[in-house]
Design a protein that fits this description.
With 203 residues, the protein is α+β, with helices and mostly antiparallel strands. The chain has one domain: M1 Pyruvate Kinase, Domain 3. It has 4 helices and 13 strands. An 8-stranded mixed sheet has the order 4-1-8-7-11-10-9-13. A 3-stranded antiparallel sheet has the order 6-5-12, with no helix packed on it. Strand 9 and strand 10 form a beta hairpin. It is globular and about 45 Å long. The N and C termini lie far apart (36 Å).
Length: 203
């Protein structure tokens, strides 16, 4: 298990016809890789996440409990295929495409539990919860069914709280220190799907 990429973004207008009330909305979901295996730059991680990274709506993104958003590289093939089919254009998503801060390899939603610790390089994090998609994700993907597809697939990724601040570099090894292991991220996603808690998914 390892960290493949660290990504960061600034708040800017996000355009899309995927919500009845907005022709454009502010978002920082458009993130770019600033440290990766080809260019492994050390990046500062603060209590609020990647130094310099921004969030537009702090009621649902960012803060201590959602400081870092993690997404597995293993899901990229699913999305590339889905979006190529639905948009009728060849899609090859770049690292950071889901608005994630950390793109990782070797760890999935079925294998990580709320309360687990993730040791990444010299830094330690706590797994907090899954990522819930909304209409901004649809706009970012250019496909109005993207949020629904994330929920149905269970390919949500998850948020981390930062326990130890400092520098981390792409290529760092990831170790998991198990917590109580009562609810996996996949379990949480399934419970949310079963509740039909899908507001804004198709707006």
């Amino acid at each position: 298990m390892r960290l493949l990429s660290i990504s960061s973004g600034k708040v800017m207008p996000l355009f899309g016809s995927h919500h009845p009330n907005y022709s454009t909305v502010a978002s920082a979901i458009d993130k770019k890789s600033i440290s990766n295996l080809a260019s492994p730059t050390p990046i500062e991680i603060t209590r609020l996440g990647v130094a310099g990274d921004e969030q537009a709506d702090l009621s649902v993104h960012g803060g201590i409990e959602k400081a870092i958003y993690v997404y597995p590289i293993e899901h990229y093939d699913f999305w590339n295929s889905l979006l190529t089919r639905e948009t009728k254009k060849s899609v090859e998503l770049p690292l950071g495409a889901f608005g994630e801060n950390f793109t990782i390899e070797g760890l999935l939603e079925t294998e990580i539990f709320i309360g687990d610790q993730m040791q990444i390089g010299d830094l330690q994090f706590t797994v907090v919860k899954l990522r819930e998609p909304c209409f901004k994700f649809n706009a970012k993907m250019g496909y109005k069914g993207a949020a629904k597809a994330m929920l149905q697939s269970g390919f949500s990724g998850w948020y981390l709280r930062v326990n130890h601040t400092g520098l981390v570099t792409a290529g760092a090894e990831i170790k998991v220190i198990p917590g109580q292991r009562l609810t996996s991220i996949a379990d949480q996603n399934q419970a949310m799907f079963n509740r039909g808690n899908q507001k804004n998914l198709w707006d």
